[in-house]
Design a protein that fits this description.
InterPro entries: CFAP65, Cyt_c-like_dom, Cyt_c-like_dom_sf, HYDIN_VesB_CFA65-like_Ig, Ig-like_fold
Structural class: mainly beta
Helix content: 10-25%
Organism: Duganella margarita
Main location: other
Strand content: 35-45%
Largest sheet: 6 strands, mixed
Number of helices: 7
Protein name: Choice-of-anchor D domain-containing protein
Distance between the termini: 20 Å
Domain Cytochrome c: 25-105
Amino acid sequence: MNRLIARVASAALLFGLAAQAAQAADALNGKSLYLNGPVSGGASCASCHGPTPANNVNGILAAANQPSVISGAFASNKGGMGSLFNGKFSAAEIADLAAFIGNPNVTAAPAASLAPTTLTFSGANIGQASAPLSATLTNSGNAALNIGTISIGGAAAGDFALGGGSCTNGASIAAGANCTVQATFTPTAAGARAATLTITHNATGGSSTVSLNGTGNATPQATIALSASSVDFGKLLTGTPSSVASVTVTNSGQAALNFSAISVSGASAAIITRAGTCAVGTPVAAGGSCTVTVQAAPTSAGTIAASLTLSSNASNGGGSVTVGLTGTAAAPAPALSATPSAVAFGSQTIGAAAATQTVTLANTGNVVLNIGSVGVTGSAAVTLSGSTCGATLAVGANCAATVSFAPTSEGAVTAALAVASNAPALQVGITGTGTTQATAKPALSETGPIGFADTQVGSSAAEHTTTLGNSGNAALKIATLTLGGTNPGDFVVGGTCAANVSISSGATCTITTAFKPTAAGARSADLLLVTDGGAQFHLTLNGNGVAVVVTAPSLGISPQSFDFGSVVIGSTAPTRRFTLTNSGAAAVTLSGATFSGPFAAVADSTGCAAFPFTLQPGASCDLVVGYTPTSAGASSGSVTIQSGSTTWNIALSGQGTASMPNAAPSNHGGGGCSASQDVTDPTLAALLVLSLIVIGWRRRNRNGGAK
């Protein structure tokens, strides 16, 4: 008995110490997650709870330093939070959110990053000025960044000059803002020339520098430039040729460009046909151009991978430049999707008129869909009350199936909308509850999708109004009304309907939606409305952004900055996807990306192609960036993306944390063990009581043995 109690006490003590060794949560990372949403994208906490937890909108302060409250809300789908966030936050991120809610006024110092760290100018003839290159100074901190002086020094300082840019001596850069500094290169001698651009400031380190490099040319040379560094044939059907893609090759140098070889190589070279005006033995004059065309004709399913290589006498490119040729080929196959993927009616009064919701079925395959049947299985209280689906559905087309719920007895009801076709079988789960109590009966005036007129980037389309009515015999409250989906930031929601608004029996409220595109191309979002009775409604919002005509390259980046929060050194690097969108009217070729700090690009088959690559007007791709701290403390850095003399900057930050399994307990910001800052940990109290019991038992047993 003595040994058993001792073992229990030891185990309890070890448990308490292990609990206290947990790492403290990162309130700054929690702030970023709260305002920006999950790293993988989607709705933000601020969209439902307001810009600061201090306002306690929807009772958010109940989660202050309480990660379990947030996890419980996700698990129970409280206010539709499960639908928005289940599986999107890690346990550490949930702890960070709780820490920020407990400390909404968390602040940080200014942090400066100057990127790129090197500006390399194209070769220029002696005495001739090159095109300007720019670097971006970003304040990724939370306080003003004050600039001291901007200067150029070094061995060949006289070959470089400052000119243009928005950074000036004595300027103040607000938190999250940036400015640019420009330099030009006019070589005074042949060969490699180098200098250093220095900006002094009040951030850590006191100054930031950029290396300046250029080459003075004594004789004219040819320079090659491509209109595209990659060609994506897209999704193709086997046996069907792709459209012809054209790459323009331009000689931007001062001497004739001569090709020594033009070839296609790689695993898919046999299915690529090459043509065009570029040819070996046909020089391209200075300032002139020629074209190379390529076409793919896949014979089997799989990935298309090949390379177009042009070898020449150009002074750049290392003797040859390569254009990646990619795409996918698939055999004809049907596919079917449903929106929403589940239907929730909530509570409905027995004997009342049936509640209805509509499911949109879409053909997402590459051949015509043959529909065998559309019906409802499960409870007889759920029926198919309408359908626009015929025997076939064209590629990209959709149809609607309406289901009704009229309970005849109390209790939960489950059913499914089942669709049989030449695609894999599809079932949409349906839930509801029958009750004899008075209940609300919410219904939207339309089922969507809501399509907006084509709208110029930065402008707004006409508002669209949707009505939420309550034909039941009890009031309802709106628990959640928020935007999610792919591009929630391109749409605006207003009207009299809002979270926590009550709608009495027979009353209505309105939801106004507007389209304000931030980038060109197709944009979409999902409007989610959840009532306190459990009913959920989805409205799909669609629009097309029209690019503003500009002459300079235009690239939209979302988000433009990101804080990775606290990351343990040596752990798996967290990643963030940054969407690059060509919002201009002409194709933009991104020549490269320069990283500073412990940040780097992460290879991802669903992300952007390898640099250099070209984005067509309205096109977008995701640049995937990882954070791998090598030392403890704050990290700052950036990604600078180049296109000729134009650059764009993404400010990055994070906090490296050393792994300390035996560290003292800490609960700053609400994370870590259960010990609070006033040291009232119930676990410690329990351990103390248990220890006293064991000591007393041992003394009593010892005294008894001495008699």
